[in-house]
Amino acid sequence: MTIDPELFDRLKAMAVSAAGHSHSPYSRFRVGAAVSSVSGAAYSGCNVENASFGLTQCAERAALTAAVSAGEAPGSLQFLVLYIPGTEAHPPCGACRQVMRELMSEDSMVWSTCDSEDVRSWSAAEYLPDPFTPESLQR
Ligand code: THU
Predict the structure, then answer these.
(1) Residues in contact with ligand 1 (CB, 6 Å cut-off)
(2) Which residue segment(s) compose the domain that 58 sits in?
(3) Which of 31, 26, 30, 63 is nearest to 44 (CA)?
């Protein structure tokens, strides 16, 4: 699956902007993400930490939650761009991969970006092979 370079740039700009709102006083890891729908709409989120550390929400899940809250149906979300400041593109965490698999399309793609030209990308099969899915609940 390919992405229009203009959409990619738009999602990266949204992710960078969202990272500016990161609430990360504990890790000082300021993360942003933006996800687009097949409709062309896009939604962003940042990581939101808590003094009770386990309550931290990652940027990817914040963006996906914003999309669903705005009315996006599961499966309508196609492209997600993650931004983590620094010179190296980092992979998304495992919890976010599970949520991406449930809410994004089967042909979805995820990119990780940073402040250098380094970019990494994953298809759905790559970011979560052999997933536990809603179908797994059918008995
Ligand atoms: N974080 C994300 O927002 N996304 C990821 O995929 C990895 C980690 C956040 C969670 C926490 O606030 C900080 O980065 C350090 O783990």
Answers:
(1) 24, 27, 29, 31, 47, 49, 56, 58-60, 92-93, 96
(2) 5-138
(3) 63
